[in-house]
Amino acid sequence: MTKGNMAPHHTHRTQSRARVSQALRRIRQAVRQHPSQRLTALCHHLTVDCLREAYFALKRDAAPGVDGVTWEEYGQDLEPRLQDLHRRVHQGTYRAQPVRRRYIAKASGGERPLGVSALEDTVVQRAVVAILHQLYEEAFLGFSDGFRPGRSQHDALDA
Questions:
Q1: pTM (2 decimals)?
Q2: Could you tell me how many helices (H) and strands (E) the chain has, helices first?
Q3: What is the C-alpha to C-alpha distance for residues 45 and 131, in angstroms, rounded to an integer?
Q4: Contact 98, 151 (CB under 8 A)
Q5: Three-state secondary-structure class, residue 59
């Protein structure tokens, strides 16, 4: 496992909500075949389905951002909200909200700042990460374990 990248999984072994976007798989193939090619138009991959998957991947008990909206409240009218979010992103009218600042006490006696994004901003961020992950996964070496899905610093230490 440490000598090469993990084989991409195109299907899930269990029945679940998660679906594999064949368009994202094609992005990965294009990057692999033409590494010097520049990809300039990726916004069309940010679909309502991609936003929905990002929403369900969020922590349900996470602290709300400046808008005060919790995961449950956003999910009450999920489909119309996701449609509206998708429309705003593609029209260029979407603007991220300010981040709520909280301070967490450190063991040394100081405080560490923590930023809490609004739920809608976190959904968009996660969806964009899913798209960009398909591009950059091909650039990582097999032994690069940090900040990659399914890998951790513990895997690096084990290797």
A1: 0.71
A2: 6, 2
A3: 7
A4: no
A5: coil
The boundaries of the domain holding residue 141 are 22-158
Strand partners, 112: 104
Residue 145 belongs to some domain of the structure: yes
Burial class (CB in 10 A: 0-12, 13-18, 19+), 122: buried
The answer to whether position 35 is within a domain reads yes
Does residue 1 fall inside a structural domain? no
Residue 4 within any structural domain of the chain: no
| CA 6, chain centre distance (Å) | 19
- Please write the tens of the pLDDT for every residue from 91-127: 999 999 999 998 999 999 899 998 989 999 999 999 9
Q: How many domains does the chain have?
A: 1
Residue 73 structure tokens: 């409240």
- Tokens 């956003």 belong to which residue? 74
Q: Can you tell me the distance from the alpha carbon of 63 to that of 12, in angstroms, rounded to the nearest whole number?
A: 30
